[in-house]
C-alpha cells in the first residue's frame, strides 16, 4: 500500500525530515516501509523546484497501517510542538492526525482502512490503554 504524509505549519519540511529519520531508525519500519521525501508539485525542467512537502511511504504486507500509525504517534509525542499530519491514500481517502494517544492511532487506522486493507493486516494489535497527552 502506498500512502503520503503531509504536515501543516511553517516547519513542515523540518517535521517531515524528522519523521523520515525516525522511520529510518525504527527497525520494524525500516524493514517494511520505503520512505521518500518529495514535493507534491511536479518538477519543472530547468527550475530548482519546490521544497519538501510530502513524505511518501510504501508499506509491505509485513507492517499494518495501525503499526505505522503507532510509530507516527510515538514520533509526534517527541516533538516540542506536536505537528498535525495528514495521511492520504492514493484514492484520495485521508485522515488528519492531531492527538497523541495510541487509541487514536487505532481509530485513525480503522478510518483510513475503512474500505479494507490491501495487505490483509488489521489494526487489532494496537494497545488501547495509553492515555492521550
Summarize the model shown.
The protein is of the alpha+beta class and 133 residues long. Helix content is 33%, strand content 20%.
Describe the structure.
The protein has 133 residues and is α+β, with helices and mostly antiparallel strands. The protein has helices spanning 12-25, 27-32, 65-77, 102-112, and strands at residues 2-7, 33-38, 54-59, 85-88, 94-97. A 5-stranded antiparallel sheet has the order 2-3-1-4-5. It is globular. It starts with a strand and ends in a 21-residue tail after the last helix. Residues 115-133 have low confidence and may be disordered.
Rg estimate, integer Å: 15 Å
Give a count of the beta strands, DSSP E runs of length 2 or more.
5
**Mean pLDDT over all positions:** 77
- The number of helices is 4
Classify the beta-strand content into a percent band. Answer: 15-25%
Distance N terminus to C terminus? 30 Å
Question: What sequence of helices (H) and strands (E) makes up the elements?
Answer: EHHEEHEEH
- Please mark out the parts with pLDDT under 50 across 5 or more consecutive residues, or reply none: 115-133
Amino acid at each position: 500500500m502506498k500512502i503520503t504524509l503531509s504536515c501543516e505549519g511553517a516547519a513542515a519540511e523540518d517535521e517531515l525530515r524528522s519523521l523520515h529519520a525516525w522511520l529510518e531508525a525504527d527497525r520494524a519500519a525500516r524493514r517494511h516501509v520505503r520512505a521518500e521525501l518529495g514535493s507534491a508539485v511536479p518538477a519543472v525542467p530547468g527550475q530548482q523546484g519546490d521544497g519538501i512537502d510530502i513524505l511518501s511511504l510504501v508499506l509491505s504486507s509485513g507492517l499494518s497501517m495501525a503499526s505505522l500509525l503507532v510509530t507516527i504517534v510515538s514520533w509526534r509525542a517527541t516533538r516540542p510542538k506536536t505537528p498535525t499530519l495528514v495521511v492520504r491514500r492514493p484514492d484520495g481517502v485521508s485522515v488528519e492526525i492531531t492527538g497523541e494517544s495510541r487509541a487514536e492511532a487505532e481509530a485513525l487506522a480503522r478510518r483510513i482502512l475503512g474500505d479494507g486493507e490491501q495487505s490483509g493486516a488489521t489494526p487489532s494489535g494496537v494497545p488501547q490503554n495509553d492515555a492521550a497527552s
